């Protein structure tokens, strides 16, 4: 599957200031595949090491952290030469070997000619720091997310429609293949962007196989966290994780601890929620009480909404069958808002946007607000229903006078009353 991270990796390879690179992200988002595919395409050879299942490889780092010695012994272990600037060295599951993570500092300082990509779980890296320090400032870091809608279109042989969507986005002109693009968007809602789910869809076109993959992935995340958390913490993590669909199914998506358990308090579940965020399986959107720059200065971190990192996994947690979304029956309307809002949040985070939500002392609320590169605060409202009247958006714009507002809905591209209309399928084009 073609991934956008490849463009970043090419720049990293060619940079004169290249550091060892750490690719992190949730389990099964394609980190290892992306690194291996990059090595196969752009290097003379690739030296791959899985740090999780080899005590011999781990032992290589125990003696000392001399890069040249480490490379010689790694080369002997796999029986192939490692060439400076021509071999891509991949350390997979690097969180399993603290010493290897620390060694990246010495590769940067003493042997920068070696090209190294480390792949790891952010959760494991954050948790597994008992003896050695993280090489702050000595490694580059990038987070890989599930496939966004554009990558999904590439994977399903719909590349040309991507070009048409981008053209319409740039011009704010209606797109002729609007209905076709909307149908593909609905399919993406069901399948999501986890590579395993996308692969099952491409190969089988059977949504039952897709849902089996999604349920397995959902379960595997709890197993991953249980490796690092205590049994007591794991129980709370599972309860918080199980509550996310219920939080989104409410009319007001603001996170409420009582949904987890009657009488639950923030004190009891702050750490479990941090675990879920560190695992990369939820996205957190905090409240701001002002639409002014910088947004972070007006954030209330105690008031927030949680979204799942993948719409397909959310569908699986809701136990929503594909035909319900694809056919749009009336029974689907109750959770449609949750799915569409989750989809937009996922797209914003994937594009490097740090969104908040805004509300006034009254009932007005804008789903997302974010700060662009010019420092302007842009409001974005999501409308899942046919009615796209946006009183809250208009109130925000009258109060704070942003250069424009954004409405994301099922309607085609357009621009009127200083509001950009973006259909759901076009949100991947939005960057800061």
From TrEMBL:
Gene3D superfamilies: P-loop containing nucleotide triphosphate hydrolases. Pfam families: AAA_14, DUF4143. Residues 224-384 form the DUF4143 domain. Residues 19-153 form the AAA domain. PANTHER family: ATPASE. This is ATPase. It comes from the Bacteria. It comes from Acetobacterium bakii.
